[in-house]
Batch of 3 targets.
Target 1
Amino acid sequence: MTIREVVKILDGKVLVGEERLDSQVNTACGSDLMSDVLAFVKEKAVLITGLINPHVVRTSEMLDITCIVFSRGKIPGEEILEMAEETGITVISTPLTTYTACGELYLHGLPGTKPKKPVTEGA
């Protein structure tokens, strides 16, 4: 799936990275916990989150996440958008909730990520 398709499916608004809309994404993850993102996400993924802070971009950069989708119509500040632009990450805002955005992408054929390692009890 391309980022352009993600934008269309999620009724999204591109905030940064319009020139990268034809880039491919392989999986998606929805989370507000960056520790879970670190544990589960693989490269060329879409991260759907309601968390707006610089850690989202830093985590995405470390994991080679292609696209960040901010749910519930959230729009990050200029600092976050500039960080994303500098690191080559496309940023989208969607009016959908995180849960609904994940479901829509899954229904349209974008799989979720699988754990990189076994999940232990209580984790």
Target 2
Amino acid sequence: MTGRRGLSVDVHLGPADIAAALKGDARRGLLAHPKELPPKWFYDELGSLLFEAITRLPEYYPGRREREILRHHAGDVAALSGADTVVELGSGSSDKTRVLLDAMAGVGLRRFVPFDVSEVTLRSAGAAIAGAYPGVEVQGVVGDFERHLGVLPSGGRRLVVFLGGTIGNLLPEQRKVFLTEVAAGMERGDALLLGTDLVKDPARLVAAYDDAVGVTAAFNRNVLAVLNRELGADFVPPRYAHAVDWNVEDERIEMYLRSMGDQEVALPAIETSVAFADGEEMRTEVSAKFRRSGVEAELGSVGLEVQRWWTDAAGDYALSLSTR
């Protein structure tokens, strides 16, 4: 553990772990039929900047809707949860979370626990939070929420926060495992604040992931640059088209890279090569959209009960507060 300026950080995921995880995901995903890659590999330095740009696009509404709900109901969350500790999963820059921290700082907030896969991002954001809230202990944890939820610090009355609709990036079986682990780590009196994007007009949903100026396309192709840099691959990103579909049956957006022409890619770090046929698609992200009944059912299946449900004025997005 190291600390500075009111910030302490526990590191459970180092560069070697991340490199091994990328190799494993690339080997499994690129040799699968159909091919796929987990969306977590989008977020190198450039990918993170591109995603921040996406959140400012007119087509991409989720961040604005979530912030609207927080502005109107952060005080309700603080009062109802009675929490003195906020644990934010996938914390990133913790930008929107400040709306919540502002409300909770006035009612006894004493500790903030940001949890993120990127140590650089976590240290930067954690130091900023520590400076803005000098009376609050900031105890960062570097880890992967698919592997390290069990190391989150306990004690106090905790509000676990999972924002951004990130829950939708998990497939149903992955959501079940994730929510089971979250619920298992919650003690009596703890609460979960969960952000979920809601089912709506498919045209609006597709536009949110296929913007007119092509920022999302650049974000999608950037994962190939990550594989080139980290695994010595020889992808030619411009030869892959950005593609987005609305899966009606599963009510989710699916994002792909579509090969333009037959091509073969070498990946020396995992000692393999992969062929792409003309038009073949590799799935790079799913983003499930939810209905209230579905959210309540998934939370209920792991022993969590929704106490409050808030949406933005347009009904595009929801925050739910649940307890054991």
Target 3
Amino acid sequence: MAKNIKKKKRLRLKISKITILIFLLDLLVVDGLILINNDNFKAFWIPTAMTTMKHKYLAYTLYDEDTVNKVMSENYIEKVNEDVNLDDIVIGGDKKRKITSKFEKELFTQDEGNSVYKTIRINESKYKGWLIGIYDPADVELAVSSKLGKAGQSVNTLVKNNKGLVGINGGGFEDLDGWGNGSIPYGAIIKDGKLIWNHSGGSGGLIGFTKDHKMYLTSKSPAEAIKDGMDEAVDFGPFLIVNGKVSKIHGDGGWGTAPRSVIAQRKDGVVLFLIIEGRLPGYSTGATMNDVIEILLRYKAYNAANLDGGASSTMSVEGKLWNRPSAGAEYGGRTVSNAWIVTNKNNKPAKAPIKNNYK
């Protein structure tokens, strides 16, 4: 009799556990269905998946082709439809500069013993990253892989090989199935006023600097850009800020939430390198185009353009990998075709900052 009572109790307990488990599974299914049918989730999930190289299938795992196409058509960028006005950039006007915000104060409070650049931590609730302000735009130049056409090189290597101090990745490259090694850059590369590479696949336009170190963004052909004075450039985009005017981002612009690399210039000539870390759960999810525009406006960017992002987003400081890339950290970051680097042409004091330790 006692044994039968114990068996019944164990059976009831087992049934109750199964019932609870089924209830929880049903709850997860219901919540999942609610979530995937949520417009905000669709607008996050689909563009984020579609802007990756290897994981576009994730968009189609949850949604049909019509839904994917509809969401992508609602997320786009309305670019500023005007040419960069180079006359607006006045380099060397330091004496006339007025500090108008805590962000500018942060930018122009130099690190001890370093008058070349300033490292600034970006620490938001959903994403983290680094901004570097380069005081003299003449110190900014394009570094290109010495194995162009055969293999890329890490940003660290490109900085070291060109006697640089810091650097970020530049334009995109063929990345079939996410295994590209940076050997075949997309679009055009201009170096020292000459077209040294031209390949299909370029998007957005030419991003670079003129011979007098003013940032130039243009959709013109490489030949026309060189005629206009373009000295160094890569092919990517989109352009985010032109002549102080911001591109209008519909939804998330179709670029999702991801690691970002951005280059910009202020009206006083100061150049900004921005890296946003992403695809790192529990640490940094990544940023949208609107997120990076907001950061750039804090520091008064006047012209700005998006560079290759995702796993390629890499920042090097004094020969060290400075950010957490979403892939390749164990071997110093992904190999890329080119990088924007900072040299020290006038041998100004440039003491390296303390190691960041990802704090």
